[in-house]
Amino acid sequence: MKFQMSKNSLFAILLRSPWWISVLIALLMGAVAFALLSGPLRAVGALSGLPFLVIAALAARRQWGLPSAARVAQTRQALAGMAWPGFAALLEQSFQRDGFTVQRGKADSVDFVLERKGRQMLVCARRWKSARTGLEALRVLQAARDAADAPDALYIGLGPLSDNAWPFAREHRIAIWQVDELAHALRGLPLGPVTTR
Fold first, then answer.
1. Among 66, 85, 109, 189, who pairs with 196 as Cys (CB 3.0-4.6 Å)?
2. What is the reported pLDDT for 196?
3. Which residues of 131-144 are buried (b: 16+ CB within 10 A; e: fewer)?
4. Can you name the CATH fold of 69-185?
5. In what order do the strands lie in the sheet with 152-156?
């Protein structure tokens, strides 16, 4: 049986929160215990916040290098106002910077064919402005992946996935990039007008 933390547990919430919140809780718990306890129990009470320091370290490790909320909002706004040629050029630059060989896709369902270390990934990104991504878009990408015998697939879109699209993506191991992942992937690239090839 695999242990899975409840997503609404205190520790799960703290892992998603800024790391410094866990540090503050740890310090507060330690200070209160130190003030209220006497004698040899003071040292033990002061350590009561230790689990929160561990959570803070885990959260800091997860959050290291992630874009700020302001950067995510700026990315969403810039990409929502962008035309396909500019967005495609940005993605191509990002993929190449990450070590992929990039080819433009020839089918409607595949916008890029990426290859790195002999492993191929099909990318569908042309519908990035869609308000919501349904199951059909992922089915088309999966069919193209099966036809190309590609081990990996990536769908890129700013809008949320429908309730039935998420299980399909998980079942078929289709990676999903939304605004948070795009803000990270496009770090350092200009989000203004982009010249296309």
1. 85
2. 38
3. eebebebbebbbeb
4. Trna Endonuclease; Chain: A, domain 1 (3.40.1350)
5. 101-104, 112-116, 119-124, 152-156, 174-177
